[in-house]
Amino acid sequence: MTTAKATTMNDVLVHAEKLAKVYGGRIPVNALCDASFTLCRGELAALLGKSGSGKSTLLNLLAGLDQPSSGTLVVDGLSLHSSNSAQMAAYRSGTIGVVFQSYNLIPHQTALQNVELPLIFSGQARGQRQEQAAAALDAVGLSARANHRPTELSGGEQQRVAIARALINRPKLLLADEPTGNLDSATADEITALLKNYCHEHQTSALIVTHDEGFARRFATRILRMSDGCLQEDAA
Amino acid sequence: MNLSDLFGFAFHSLTQHKLRSSLTLLGVILGAFLVIVTISIGQGVQEVIPRLMRRNDQLRQISVQPNGEREKADFVKEPIVGEMSDERRVRLAEAKKRRHRGRAGDLLQPITDERLAELAAIEHVESAIPIIGANVELRLRDIASTVYCVSSTTDNPNIARSLVAGRSISSNGAKEVLIHEFVAYELGFQNEADLSQLLGSTVQLEFNLGGSYLSSLLQSQRGGKQKPSAEEQQTLEEVMRMLPVVAQQLKLTDNLQQLLKKTLTSFAENETVALQSSKVVSTGDLTVVGIYRSSTDEEHRTLHEYFGLNDQAQVPVEVARELARQMPGFDKNGYGQVVVRVDEERHVRSVVEHLRSQKYQFRSLVEIVEHLQREYGLMLWSMTALGTVALLISAIGITNTMLMSVLERTREIGIMKAVGARDGQIQAIFLTEGACIGLVGAAIALVSARGASMFANSWIQQIVSREAHQPVDDQLFLFPWWLIVGIFIATLTVTLLAAWIPARRAARIPPVVALRHD
Ligand SMILES: Nc1ncnc2c1ncn2[C@@H]1O[C@H](COP(=O)(O)OP(=O)(O)O)[C@@H](O)[C@H]1O
Ligand SMILES: [Mg+2]
């Protein structure tokens, strides 16, 4: 696959070549077949596809949460297909931010503590950490709910907390797996706007998984499609 | 992520499940408590025993006695006679040997003056002083009294306490004597004020070798205080020569007459020989320098000293030795007991070993103390082992609980990894939880053991001092610094080991798997 416009090496953030994932087990599943694509810095892409088509599989590979079965995946100069667990952890901590459909907040910690979490692992000092987390919560409009636990927040509020957490380390690549899948359309629009504004403001690349065609068009400049583990791209 | 972050995580997660954490902690506390208490009481016992013994500086002393083996007397060597099986003959010969053991024949190894010098020359031995005691006659001018006299030394701490008049002996070789207050009373010094008159008087201690039966009969009829005079002795001799003649004047049958004459003649002959061969061994002139009393019941109880209870006179040891040497059979029997004093407590063992190799019989408190320490030590160490087992069982509890906790928190672990946690950081979080349980458990166990022991200490002290009628400040439970440090290290090690497997497992969960978990 080639992208529409010519790119220099410096502009390339993500480069995948014949990336494949086979889930082992009793019956092996070819969830991703030889996917190749490139994402440049500052690009916003949407990944569309039916349920079970392999979108999450690709996103987990990009998020450094899983290892590909074959192929190469280089993000920001790091070859994820051949990295050890320490390099992967550093990558997750410094290069990317992930937002999940099911929020994935720690239930017994407050909103502020959840947002603070990535900073603890990246070794920031306590005072700085809390300041930064409070500012991030403020940026998603939730400073009033800083000391509430996830169970005391609405779905939209929880996803804002998750977004604040994903962005707190100023990632180069924002990954989101159906971030509005569990939300009503009005809230979904707010979340979409929030993500889009942030990416524009901070020149951050993003890959958003969705099965909502309208959302994809509103958000992204590039649209990738997945079906039965095969990746295709709409012409620009 | 620094230590305070780790403890923050641990505290947070432990307080999430208060009941579960408390129960896990309780196991650790009980195990550590048991270990602490047993070690603590063990320390107390190990220290109290020698301290009690050390009160009178007795740990440095060894009481040495001659080896009881004796040369076999001739009759023991005689074969068993009569018709019998060989087995029975051997049995009887064995029984005969056993029956006469230590009773017949001369000592093979008496403690003579030479041996005494050898004892004193053993390395680390400060002094070897014999203890001599004998019934002698104490003569003051014309009155005499039979007294049991013992040897004494200048360093006897009991003398000063027990003196009622005068002073202690000035040296171990001084020609001096201390007299029990009752002997003074018997000698006629009844008024308390008279005692000072006795001080400075010259007395002799004498020992009669031989002597006639009648003469001693006469003396004992006078209360043992007055010896027959030379005139009386002569009269006695006369009486004895007369006895066979007197018998003839009695109106008896011929048979009885013969029998009585025979008996009286041989008696008179023996008595005459005894009178003529009797010899007096004397200390020569001794100056009375002090008068002492027996120790009181109170002193027995508190000092374990029986001073002046059975003796009526005390002379410096060299004076006593001089007298002892003149006693018949001294070269065969030697001294009955010698007190060997060692320069330092830690050298007692080597001296004891030397004595053992030289086949002496001896009693050393150090041996008794060591024996007690071994006995109690064994018991207490086995209790400590039990406590350690309890601690280990609680460790299995920790492992189990934490494995459950890892399972419950799998998704949380996945989240942490997704936002950048390294495997080592996840592992550290779980190890810190184990460490927290260990540290808190050890601290609570220490504090409660200390509290319990203070209570027990004062309770035991109360009982003991009521029994002993004196304040006791011995601590049965001791908490040396190494116990406090050691229990923290031990508990921490055990709980960290217990947390190791769960922590490894948590760290190794692949993030996708963890995130899919619910
Ligand atoms: N851990 C797994 N083991 C086996 N098969 C899996 C696993 N995860 C996903 N799959 C399968 O891989 C395919 C792609 O799944 P997924 O990437 O989750 O799809 P999507 O996110 O597009 O709905 C599906 O057929 C799914 O059943
Ligand atoms: Mg999916």
Helix fraction of chain A by DSSP (H/I, runs of at least 4): 25-40%
**CATH hierarchy class name of chain A:** Alpha Beta
Number of strands of chain B: 12
Number of domains of chain A: 1
- The sequence of SSEs of chain A as H and E is EEEHEEHEHHHEHEHEE
Computed structural class of chain A: alpha/beta
- List segments of chain A where confidence is low: pLDDT < 50 over at least 5 consecutive residues: 1-6
The helix tally of chain B amounts to: 20
The Cα radius of gyration of chain A reads 17 Å
Q: Do you know the CATH architecture of chain A?
A: 3-Layer(aba) Sandwich
Q: Given the helix and strand composition of chain B, which structural class is it?
A: alpha+beta
- The N- to C-terminal Cα distance of chain A equals 13 Å
**Ligands bound to this protein structure:** adenosine-5'-diphosphate, magnesium ion
Summarize the amount of helix of chain B as a percent range: 55-70%
Explain how this protein is built.
The complex is a heterodimer of chains A (236) and B (518). Chain A has 236 residues and is α/β, with parallel strands linked by helices. Helices cover 34% and strands 27% of the residues of chain A. In chain A, a hairpin with a 5-residue loop joins β1 and β2 (29-40). With 518 residues, chain B is an alpha+beta fold. A 6-stranded mixed barrel of chain B has the order 3-4-10-6-9-7. Chain B has a 4-stranded antiparallel beta sheet with strand order 2-11-1-12. Chain B is elongated and about 135 Å long. The complex binds adenosine-5'-diphosphate and magnesium ion.
